[in-house]
Amino acid sequence: MPEALRQNLWHVWLVFRRELATYFNSAGAYITLVAFVLIAGWFFSSSFFLINESDLRVLFGIIPIIYLFFIPAITMGLLAREKSAGTFELLITLPLEDWTVVWGKYLAAMALIAVGLLFSLVHFLTLALVATNMDTGAIISGYLGLLLAGGVYAAAGIFCSALTENQITAFILGFMIVFIFFMLNKVLLFVPGSMTAILQYLSMDFHLTNISRGVIDSRNLVYFGSMITLFLTLTVRVLEMRKWR
Predict the structure, then answer these.
(1) Are 179 and 207 contacting, i.e. CB atoms less than 8 angstroms apart?
(2) Which of 55, 65, 66, 64 is nearest to 123 (CA)?
(3) Which three-class secondary structure state does DSSP give residue 110?
(4) What is the mean pLDDT of residues 33-38?
């Protein structure tokens, strides 16, 4: 491995470790994770105990809705907090590539999302104790889809955090982008037929539903990878523009 790449990966690790420590050194991460687990657990348990019927499709259906608030909340401060605290100028003067800062912070947000999904595995274990003939492949791909969807939303969130110094503004912008992705597949009946295919492809729900069925299609993976790359690239460009000023 080239020395320059090794050094940059080390910088990504340092930023990741610093950001993850920032998350867990405050009550915010714990409150957000507890809220995530409780809300997901309530919807899962309500169907499990009230109507005596449940499967993980209930969970896979509610988590994307929770993402609308959960992910903007954990990404709103990734860069906006640095700007408002006056530490961003110090950060960009360090011998770090802009992309290493962005990726380090992004991976820290992804780690928090993964922890939330990991806690939700208790529902899988609960169901495994009482259910028979569980489709393990569909469950694994469903969790993969949720992680990839969280990756797209987190990339959009860090982009919004780069646009402003105000964390509340970053949260609102992040929520708006996530909400648009979430709603695209639900408004297809109201758009011209010529736009249906485009909006369907851009819809998060369309790709998440496909991958949650247990079939991992390369077209869905390309979509998730492209959206993540797009938003992270835009974030790097925003940081570069700030330097030019």
Answers:
(1) no
(2) 55
(3) helix
(4) 86
